[in-house]
Amino acid sequence: EYLALLTRLAAMHEERGESIEAIETWQRLVAADPATEAAHVALMRLYAGSGQRLSALAQFDQLVTILERELDASPEPTTWELVNAIR
After folding, report:
1. What is the pTM of this model?
2. Low-confidence stretches of the chain (pLDDT beneath 50)
3. Can you give the pLDDT at residue 27?
4. Residue 75: helix, strand or coil by DSSP?
5. CB neighbour class for 51 (10 Å; exposed up to 12, middle 13-18, buried from 19)
6. In this structure, how many other beta carbons lie within 10 angstroms of the beta carbon of residue 31?
7. At CA 14, angle to CA 43 and CA 65, rounded to 5?
8. How many whole angstroms separate alpha carbon 55 and alpha carbon 66?
9. CA 44, CA 81: separation in Å to the nearest integer?
10. Alpha helical stretches, state H, 1-87
11. Is 21 helix (H, G, I), strand (E, B) or coil?
């Protein structure tokens, strides 16, 4: 329930154009559940949109590491598309 609330709060901040608050909320979600790919993707998108390209790429690297370590998985194809567009 906590993760669902954070997701809704982050989306609300994004809808209002409150990028800083959205980033902080997505970061809280990643801290609570590091394997939530959607939160990493949102952070990547927000970082890239605010000109923080290196932060977006670092977020992707963090996601890859976590997914491999915790789930023996790799990011979804759409996540790869996003990181390629950021690069």
Report:
1. 0.95
2. none
3. 98
4. coil
5. exposed
6. 10
7. 15
8. 16
9. 12
10. 2-15, 19-32, 37-49, 53-66, 77-86
11. helix
